[in-house]
Amino acid sequence: MSIRFLSFSASLLVAGVVLMPTAMAADTAEKPCETDLCRSVRQSWASVRHGTSDAADWTKKQSVKGWDATKNGVSHAAHWTGRESEKGWKATKNGTKEAVHDTGAWTKKTAHELDPGTSDKAPDAKTDAAGQ
Q1: What is the DSSP code (8-state) at residue 128?
Q2: Which of 26, 54, 89, 94 could serve as a FRET partner for 113 with CA atoms 20 to 30 Å apart?
Q3: How does pLDDT run across 28-83, given as a tens digit for each residue?
Q4: Integer CA distances (angstroms), 23 to 11, 17, 19, 20, in order
């Protein structure tokens, strides 16, 4: 009999603990705090909440502006790099052509000075470097 009594008492205790927060919440909802302190705290909290919302909106707008500026800057930098690379490539190509032309002219002139009797055309494919 004592075991039944203990388990019944424990059940009542658990049921009371479970129901107590509900009853306390119902009392709180029915009677909001209307003191000056409570109103001041509510107003301060509303002000903080609005300020936080405004700050979040401002941060989002500034982030979008910053991202757009970065994206545009990267795009402009890429276009500039492409144009400069093309200019550099054309200059290198033209310089290489001129260098090859100058080297060929110098080689032809020097060969003619060393042996004025040779013709200006390339050696025959049948002869080797020794002229045989």
Answers
A1: -
A2: 94
A3: 556 778 888 888 888 899 999 999 999 999 999 999 999 999 999 999 999 999 99
A4: 18, 10, 6, 5
What is the full DSSP assignment across 3-59? HHHHHHHHHHHHHHHHHHHHHHHHHHHHS---SHHHHHHHHHHHHHHHHHHHHHHHH
pTM comes to 0.35
Tokens, residue 89: 């490539």
Please tell me which residue, 26 or 117, carries the higher pLDDT value: 117
pLDDT for 119 equals 56
**Measured distance CA(48)–CA(33) in Å, rounded:** 20
Sign of CA dihedral 109, 113, 119, 122: negative
